[in-house]
Amino acid sequence: MSSELKTYNWIPLTSAEFSYFSRLIQSQFGIKMPEVKITMLQSRLQRRLRALQLPSFTKYIEYLESDTGKTELVNFIDVVSTNKTDFFREPVHFEYLTGNILPELSENQSSLKIWSAGCSTGEEPYTLSIVLEEFISNNHPLDYSIFATDISSTVLQKAQDAIYDCNRVINLPLDIKKKYFLKSKNPDLKKVRVQSKLRGKVSFDRLNFMDGTYEVPFGFNVIFCRNVLIYFDRPTQEAVINKLCDHLRPDGYFFLGHSESIARMDVPLKPLKPTIYRRI
What is the 3-state secondary structure (H, E, C) of 8-28? Predict the structure, then answer.
């Protein structure tokens, strides 16, 4: 390791610099950054200092505020945002989708639109596609499309590539793995890729929940927005849910993460089960 890299690894982040980044993150992206996360933020932002060959966080702030640094906000949020997800995470949601929602919707229409809002590296939208394919194979033909968005360009690229370490699918049933994942021909890589049919059902786009309006399609039957809003304060959560609901059909379904709630919020949703709602 070079002496230059060692220097970058130990660049201190002052309280004033942390306050600047914290305010920037909340104003631009809605994400709360309490002071207990100063070490985490310092560690992640080191990557941008190394990439830009900047000697201090003060110089990075100057770069962010310069005309040439406007596009740096995309890279900034890529290293700051947390992206944790799994295939079939919170399985009760997919069980409810299969057992309650899909039978009802498939009786009344021939096609469905689902939005995975905050899709991270793609496990959620591809899980949704697997659930739809399994339902179709056991019932009757049904067309569908899945729209997936995230603020991070880096994770969106990984989602589009649809290549995962084998340990990401190790707990999936064998028949699901055989039907929907392709193993690398190189046994040393230990990688799988989502089957092309599923990839063709999912489209990806970048979206910042803090945008005034969302330039995305309307008329979704189902929206999944799980384990994303926990990083926002309560007023921001309410505003985001309302903007998402603008794109949800009347009587459409809305899913939140297990630790999220709409309690005491002014939103057009009624609870069906914990974290599962229907648009009023």
Answer: HHCCCCCHHHHHHHHHHHHHH
Residue with tokens 């309690």: 263
44 given a catalytic annotation: yes
Query: In this structure, what DSSP letter does residue 167 have?
Result: G
**Tokens representing residue 119 in the block:** 């899709």
Longest dimension (CA), the chain: 66
Q: What is the pTM of this model?
A: 0.82
The third-level CATH classification (topology) of the domain covering 91-279 is Rossmann fold (3.40.50)
Give residue-wise pLDDT tens across range 127-159: 999 999 999 999 878 999 999 999 888 899 999
Q: Which helix (H) or strand (E) holds 72?
A: helix 72-80
Q: Distance between CA atoms of 85 and 113, rounded to whole angstroms?
A: 22
Measured CA to CA, the distance from residue 9 to residue 46 in angstroms comes to 7
The CATH code belonging to domain 3-80 is 1.10.155.10
Whether residue 161 lies in the annotated active site: no
Catalytic residue among 48, 150, 199, 226: 150
Cβ contact 102:128 at 8 Å: no
Buried/exposed code over 261-274 (b: 16+ C-beta within 10 A; e: otherwise): ebeeeebbbeeeee
Choosing from 44, 50, 89, 168, the catalytic residue is 44
Residue spans of the domains in the chain: they are: 3-80, 91-279
Residue-wise pLDDT for 215-233, tens only, equals 999 999 999 999 888 878 8
How many Å is the Cα radius of gyration of the chain? 21
Kindly report which listed range (18-32, 72-86, 99-113, 166-180) carries the lowest average pLDDT score.
Answer: 72-86
Closest alpha carbon to 41 in 22, 58, 69? 22
3-state helix, strand, coil in the chain (%, to 5): 50, 20, 35
